[in-house]
Amino acid sequence: MRKAKTNNTGFGYLWENGVGCPIGTVPIRRVTKDDLLSLNSLDDDKYKPRGSWSTNFNDSNNPVHNDQYHYAVGRTNNTGIHYHGATMDLCITAPGVKPKQFSHSRLHIQLGNDYVQIGLAVNPVLYGDVLPRTFVYTHAGGKSCYNSHCDVGMILVRRDVPLGMPFKPVSIRGSSESHYVIFGLIKDQANGNWWLQLGDDAEEIGFWPAQRFPQSFGNKVEWGGEVFSANQPSPEMGYGFLPAASVVYDAYVKRIAILDDNFHFDQQVYHLEEFSDNIQGYGVIDSLEFKDPEEGHIIYFGGPGNI
């Protein structure tokens, strides 16, 4: 298995100039008139990501679903543990979506009534195309937004990694090479700030100040796919196929880990449950097998949707 193209000294390869913004500045994706119209539509409750805990529907014999969101995730099922971070190696896929739909592959940490998501999104409403792009979503204090588009959004500190940049190459189902990117959402033990980390060397891309979240720890974590459709049947997730527990044929999140109460990394993460709200359209397989130490704990997910 080959990693997604990363650069331990920076992410300049994401830019045409191979470098990024001038020193002393940070990248801000240019917002056009059309972008503003799209962002305005995001003010509605539609298009706003959420956790799978917002639904308890799980009836494969009844495809009718009043909600427009669907999930296939591995999620923590315990109570009483304080999470101070989580990490993942996320397979880069480009699921098929239509306008007014999205398909996200992400890590979600719930902090009481607030939450943060990080990962890759195919989201035409947000980005105007169907490329897999990095995204961050913040819900805090009754406000919410993607990336840094509001005052509760992430504060970007890296000049060479703008949020919303496409990641490539994209993995091809059945290929002997699979591409992934490493994400981490980690709380700083010294000051309580939450940091977005990206790449092999856990480069710190941006942060949320500690005071942004009334609750200082996470109480739930989940890894996997989330889709939304405004009107049409639901879009693809991952490769667009139900999983079969194979890194060659499935979208996956591997080497998942959590930072526990004592700020120690737990790479086993035994306390997980599989959750798909409609197994006709989306599936998830949680594998705790460690046949290859490099792979770690893997969650396979995906599906054709159309429900």
From TrEMBL:
<protein>
    <recommendedName>
        <fullName>Neprosin PEP catalytic domain-containing protein</fullName>
    </recommendedName>
</protein>
<dbReference type="InterPro" id="IPR025521">
    <property type="entry name" value="Neprosin_propep"/>
</dbReference>
<dbReference type="Pfam" id="PF03080">
    <property type="entry name" value="Neprosin"/>
</dbReference>
<dbReference type="InterPro" id="IPR053168">
    <property type="entry name" value="Glutamic_endopeptidase"/>
</dbReference>
<dbReference type="Pfam" id="PF14365">
    <property type="entry name" value="Neprosin_AP"/>
</dbReference>
<dbReference type="InterPro" id="IPR004314">
    <property type="entry name" value="Neprosin"/>
</dbReference>
<feature type="domain" description="Neprosin PEP catalytic">
    <location>
        <begin position="64"/>
        <end position="307"/>
    </location>
</feature>
